[in-house]
Design goal:
Structural class of chain A: mainly beta
Number of strands of chain A: 11
Distance between the termini of chain A: 39 Å
Largest sheet of chain A: 7 strands, mixed
Strand order of the largest sheet of chain B: 2-10-9-4-5-6
Number of helices of chain B: 0
Largest sheet of chain B: 6 strands, mixed
Largest interface: A-B, 27 and 26 residues
Distance between the termini of chain B: 36 Å
Order of helices and strands of chain B: EEEEEEEEEE
Structural class of chain B: mainly beta
Strand content of chain A: over 45%
Oligomer: heterodimer
Shape of chain A: globular
Radius of gyration of chain B: 13 Å
Number of strands of chain B: 10
């Protein structure tokens, strides 16, 4: 059974870069899209972006100028880098596997496996 | 961006009750609507995908319906473990936006 595990620093200083990784175990990273989602304290969920195993990405336009999501198939992991962070980037960050299917004239997607989440606090 | 609006934002109910949560999209999203359950301190858990498809392992008391802009999640007979926050999510177009959540509490 596929499992995901996020890792990275729990504390980042304002204006610095937040870097997280998600390790995929129990299955291959190939053939799937992979997502990052975040949840500020006491708030709802925000989709950050996707990466396909080939390296193709889709980003939330609200974060695009600061965001890089990449994949390393040799290590079965994918990563997130968010530059110039502020307190507004404080959140629990989740990684998730995205399944794809064919609907009526287009594709649909849903996130079937999630990591447990990692808390990132932006503070000096 | 497509805005997703859930109602109600919170709901009190009793074990055994039938509960319905509504999600409305700001434009048509076909059937590309997913539902997740989240318990405190835990990651979201997929319940329903593409509006009405029950994820493997999810109890059959959960069901989803709708298309276009209006969707519902129904729990036919609430169990103690169902008290949680529920989110809808559209994957019709990026960014894949979520509703603000519906917190289901014990009456």
């Amino acid at each position: 059974q596929v499992q995901l595990q996020e890792s990275g620093p729990g504390l980042v200083k304002p204006s610095e870069t937040l870097s997280l990784s998600c390790i995929v175990s129990g299955g291959s990273i190939s053939g799937y899209y992979w997502s990052w989602i975040r949840q500020p304290p006491g708030k709802g969920l925000e989709w950050i972006g996707n990466v396909y195993h080939s390296g193709t990405t889709n980003y939330n336009s609200a974060l695009k100028s600061r965001l890089t999501i990449s994949v390393d198939t040799s290590k079965d992991q994918f990563s997130l880098k968010l530059t110039s962070v502020t307190a507004a980037d404080t959140a629990v960050y989740y990684c998730a596997r995205v399944l794809e299917g064919v609907g009526t004239g287009s594709y649909y997607y849903y996130m079937d496996v999630w990591g447990k989440g990692t808390t990132v606090i932006v503070s000096s | 961006d497509i805005q997703m609006t859930q109602s109600p934002s919170s709901l009190s109910a009793s074990v055994g009750d039938r509960v319905t949560i509504t999600c409305r999209a700001s434009q048509s999203i076909s059937s590309y609507l997913n539902w997740y359950q989240q318990k405190p301190g835990k990651a979201p858990n997929l319940l329903i995908y593409v509006a009405s498809n029950l994820q493997s392992g999810v109890p059959s008391r959960f069901s989803g319906s709708g298309s276009g802009t209006d969707f519902t999640l129904t729990i036919s007979s609430l169990q103690p473990e169902d008290f949680a926050t529920y989110y809808c999510q559209q994957t019709y177009s990026t960014p894949y936006t979520f509703g603000q959540g519906t917190k289901l509490q014990i009456k």
